[in-house]
Amino acid sequence: xxxxxxxxxxxxxxxxxxxxxxxxxxxxxxxxxxxxxxxxxxxxxxxxxxxxxxxxxxxxxxxxxxxxxxxxxxxxxxxxxxxxxxxxxxxxxxxxxxxxxxxxxxxxxxxxxxxxxxxxxxxxxxxxxxxxxxxxxxxxxxxxxxxxxxxxxxxxxxxxxxxxxxxxxxxxxxxxxxxxxxxxxxxxxxxxxxxxxxxxxxxxxxxxxxxxxxxxxxxxxxxxxxxxxxxxxxxxxxxxxxxxxxxxxxxxxxxxx
Amino acid sequence: xxxxxxxxxxxxxxxxxxxxxxxxxxxxxxxxxxxxxxxxxxxxxxxxxxxxxxxxxxxxxxxxxxxxxxxxxxxxxxxxxxxxxxxxxxxxxxxxxxxxxxxxxxxxxxxxxxxxxxxxxxxxxxxxxxxxxxxxxxxxxxxxxxxxxxxxxxxxxxxxxxxxxxxxxxxxxxxxxxxxxxxxxxxxxxxxxxxxxxxxxxxxxxxxxxxxxxxxxxxxxxxxxxxxxxxxxxxxxxxxxxxxxxxxxxxxxxxxxxxxxxxxxxxxxxxxxxxxxxxxxxxxxxxxxxxxxxxxxxxxxxxxxxxxxxxxxxxxxxxxxxxxx
Lengths: 257, 325
Ligand SMILES: Cc1cc2nc3c(=O)[nH]c(=O)nc-3n(C[C@H](O)[C@H](O)[C@H](O)COP(=O)(O)OP(=O)(O)OC[C@H]3O[C@@H](n4cnc5c(N)ncnc54)[C@H](O)[C@@H]3O)c2cc1C
Ligand SMILES: Nc1ncnc2c1ncn2[C@@H]1O[C@H](COP(=O)(O)O)[C@@H](O)[C@H]1O
Description:
The complex is a heterodimer. Chain A has one domain (about 1-210): Rossmann fold (3-Layer(aba) Sandwich). Chain A has a seven-stranded parallel β-sheet with strand order 7-11-6-1-4-5-12, with helices on both faces. A three-stranded antiparallel β-sheet of chain A has the order 8-9-10, with no helix packed on it. A two-stranded antiparallel ribbon of chain A has the order 2-3. By secondary structure, chain A is an alpha/beta fold. Chain A has six helices and 14 strands. Chain B is α/β, with parallel strands linked by helices. Chain B has two domains: about 5-175, Rossmann fold; about 205-325, 3-Layer(aba) Sandwich (Rossmann fold). Chain B has eight helices and 15 strands. The interface between A and B is large, with 90 and 98 residues. Flavin-adenine dinucleotide sits at the interface of chains B and A.
C-alpha cells in the first residue's frame, strides 16, 4: 500500500505572524516557517501504520516555497520514504481552488491508495483542501477524524457531527484528514536523520503538472487587508484574601453581571 | 438591480430541529440578497425545520427527504445544493463553518467550479457582487475577498454575524436526489451527544467562563462549570484542559478550537499561550485568575488577579449570590 501525507509549512504560531499590508500575503520574514503541527500528526499516523504492517510506503507531498525543502528533509527523518515538492513562483498567494488542483495533480501522478492530511491548516483555517482533492480525484473523503483505523481496503474513524458523533468508513482509495486529537510526532533519531539525506525528493513546477495558473476559472482574490489594534494589559491585583469580593464589585460596577 | 438569491444550507438535528446557527446563516444571506434555505433530512423530518427556516427569514426552502442522508457522508447535501443552485441561480451559498459544512462546501466548489471563501466572519455587497470578510492569524488581521467571477461558496464562522431576517411564510419546494457517486464514505454508526447542556452555546454566549490545566482535575474543572452557571455563561476550555480530559473537544477555545468574542471572558487557570489568545482576544472584557504573576494571559486582561482560583472563585460566587438576594 502507498500512503501520501499532505504536509504543509506555516508561519510558527508561537512567533509573530504577519500579513503584508501591501500584498496581503504572509510576511515570511516575520516568523520562522515550521511544519504545521496538525500535519506532523498525520505523518505520525502514516509512519506508525507503516511500521505495524508489511509493504507500506509513505510519501510526503507539499506545495510551498523553497524553504519547504528543509522541512521535507526533517520530516523524512521521521520514517517516510520519499517526498514530492511543488514549487513555482506563480503559486505565491494561490487560492484554495488552485492549491487543490495542484495537489490533486501530484497525487494522481504518484498513484497512492490512501491520502492523509490535517483537518485545518493553522495559517489559512480553510479545512477544505482535503475534500476538494477527493472531489477532483473522484474518490471518497473521510475528514476531521478523531480516531483512525486503516486496513488494506478501508479506513474507519469517528468524527463530530450535528448532535453527536458518527463513525464513518470509506473504501480505498480515499482521502482522510485528522484532528489534533491524534498523537504528536516522534523525534527522529540520528539514524533517521542520516537516512533522510539520501531519500528521494522530487520537485515539480506547474508546467510539469500541466497546470496553467492563469486559466480563466473563477478564483478568490483578496481586496483589502488591515491590521487590528493590539490588546493591552489593564489592571493587575494580587489576591490578599479579598480578590473574589473585589472581582464581584468590578463585575457589578461594569454591569457585566 | 434585481435581488439575488443566496442559498443557505441549514443543517437539521436528528430531532428534526434546525441547528442553532440557522438564524445567523439566513440573517447573513439577507444582508446580500434573498435568503433561500436548503435542508436535507431523513424521511419525514423536514416539515417543522422548513417552517422554522421561514421564521428565520427563508423566502423559499428546498427540501430533500431521503434515506441516504443518514447513511452517506456529505454527498446528499452537496447534491441538493447543486440542484437547488441550478433551480434558482444562486449568487452565493452560505454553509456553516464546521466539520460537515466544510466538506459540503469543498465538494460544491469543485463540482460547480466556484470560488470558495472559508471561515468567513461577515459579508457585504459592493458594485461588483458579494464580498467576504475574514479574521486572520488569531484576529490580528482583517481581510476581504471576492470571486473574480461566478458565485461564491462561503463557510460562515458561527457567532460572527448579528443581522437577523424578518420571518416570512416560505415557499417549500421538494427536491429529489440525483444518483449519488458510489465512492462516498458511509456513516456506519451515530451516537448522540450526552444530554444537551442547558448552558448557552459557547459561540454565541455574552459571557464565557473558560478553564485551563490550572484547574488540575475533572473535579477541579467543576469550579469553572459552577461559575459559568452562576453567571448564566457559556463554558470553554484550553487545549491542555481538553487533552487532560477535563472537558469535551467541542469546548476548546483557540487557534484550533472555537473563536469567541463575548462581552466578558473569564479565564481560570489558563496561562494564555498565543494559540489560546487567538480564540478569545476580541472579547470586550477579559478577566484572568492565575497563580503565576508572569502568565501571558495578564498581558491582554482588563483585570488580572494573581491568586489561587480555588480561593478567589468560591468567594466571587458567594459575594455575587449575597448581593443579588
Ligand atoms: C498548533 C497549535 C495549536 C494550538 N491550539 C490551541 C487552542 O486552540 N487552544 C488552546 O487553548 N491551546 C492551543 N494550543 C496549546 C497552547 O500552546 C498551550 O499549550 C495551552 O493553551 C495551554 O493550556 P493551559 O493554559 O490550560 O495550560 P498551562 O499552560 O499549563 O497553564 C496552566 C496555568 O494554570 C495556572 N494555575 C495552576 N494552578 C492554579 C491555581 N490553583 N489557581 C490559579 N492558577 C493556577 C498556572 O500558573 C498556569 O499558568 C495550541 C498549540 C499549538 C502548537
Ligand atoms: N500547500 C499545501 N501543501 C500540502 N498540503 C496542504 C497544503 N495546503 C493544505 N494542505 C493539507 O490540507 C490540510 C487542510 O488544509 P486547509 O484546507 O488549508 O485548512 C492541511 O492540514 C494539509 O494536510
